[in-house]
Amino acid sequence: MNGVSGVVLYAILWCIVLFAVLPWGIRPADPSDLGYAAGAPANPQLRKKLVWTTLITAALWLVIFLVVQADVISFRDWAAGGSLLKR
User: Fold this and answer.
1) Which of 53, 59, 73 is nearest to 1 (CA)?
2) What is the pTM assigned to this prediction?
3) Do 61 and 13 meet the contact criterion of CB atoms below 8 Å apart?
4) 18, 32, 39, 57: which has the highest count of C-beta atoms within 10 A?
5) Handedness of CA 50, 51, 55, 56 (dihedral sign)
6) Residue 49, φ and ψ in degrees, nearest 5
7) Taking residues 5-26, what's their average pLDDT?
8) Separation CA 16–CA 63 (nearest Å)
9) Residue 86 DSSP code
10) How far apart (Å, rounded) are the C-alpha atoms in residues 24 and 30?
11) What is residue 83's three-state secondary structure?
12) CB-CB contact of 63 with 72 (8 Å)
């Protein structure tokens, strides 16, 4: 995996993980709050969720990077009609 592939993979993973993390701990706002909107959360805690997203993505990226670097999975062989897993 070269540098550009690594950055692109990280960006894609980060977006996917962000959408998985966003609903964590959401509570609806109280209707008596100023500026109440029906679907708005009371306290979204975005900074905390961005930190969690970054940490989870880094761990996932590292696992994928190590699998690719160890050449456990060969997508080139698989595309050529061979097996996905190296033996």
Assistant:
1) 73
2) 0.77
3) yes
4) 57
5) negative
6) -70, -35
7) 94
8) 16
9) -
10) 18
11) coil
12) no
Euclidean distance between CA atoms 85 and 76, whole angstroms: 11
* CB atoms closer than 10 angstroms to residue 68: 16
Report d(CA 15, CA 32) in Å as an integer.
33
Phi, psi (deg, nearest 5) at residue 14? -60, -45
C-alpha pair distances (Å), 74 with each of 65, 77, 78, 82, 85: 13, 5, 6, 9, 6
Amino acid at 76: R
Each residue's pLDDT tens digit, 57-71: 999 999 999 988 887
For residues 23-42, give the mean pLDDT: 79
Between 13 and 74, name the one with better pLDDT: 13
Is residue 86 over pLDDT 70?
no
Read off the tokens for 77: 């062989």
